[in-house]
């Protein structure tokens, strides 16, 4: 239980519990909404890692040899429900995801290239400076 502050001036107070956040995460995961497909044309040209086989040659030389300079797609999805916990100084989250890469051939066929399972522990710390809301996010593992 948490005591709410007494308002002496008009203010907006927003409180979200772990139960609400984890219920939302469960609902989105169960509904299959935690999926995102990223194609090479969705990234800005200045983005440091373009989704093309020539850029992935560092990670997989055979990919560039077999499919020279072809566009790629990434299919990102959650393998398990994200878990969130609230602490007085930060929000902590455990993410369980996968990234599947495909080479897009000239006839629009997608050829599987590789699959990465990515698990991460993330901490976010909100900050309020004057009338600005900001924050930091750090990867813990």
UniProtKB/TrEMBL annotation:
Keyword field: Antibiotic, Antimicrobial, Disulfide bond, Glycoprotein, Immunity, Innate immunity, Membrane, Secreted, Signal, Transmembrane, Transmembrane helix
Residue span, Lipid-binding serum glycoprotein C-terminal domain: 6-139
Broad class of where this protein is predominantly found: secreted
GO biological process: defense response to Gram-negative bacterium; innate immune response; lipopolysaccharide-mediated signaling pathway
Subunit: Monomer. Homodimer; disulfide-linked.
The record's note on its domains: The N- and C-terminal barrels adopt an identical fold despite having only 13% of conserved residues.
Name of the protein: Bactericidal permeability-increasing protein
Organism this protein belongs to: Himantopus himantopus
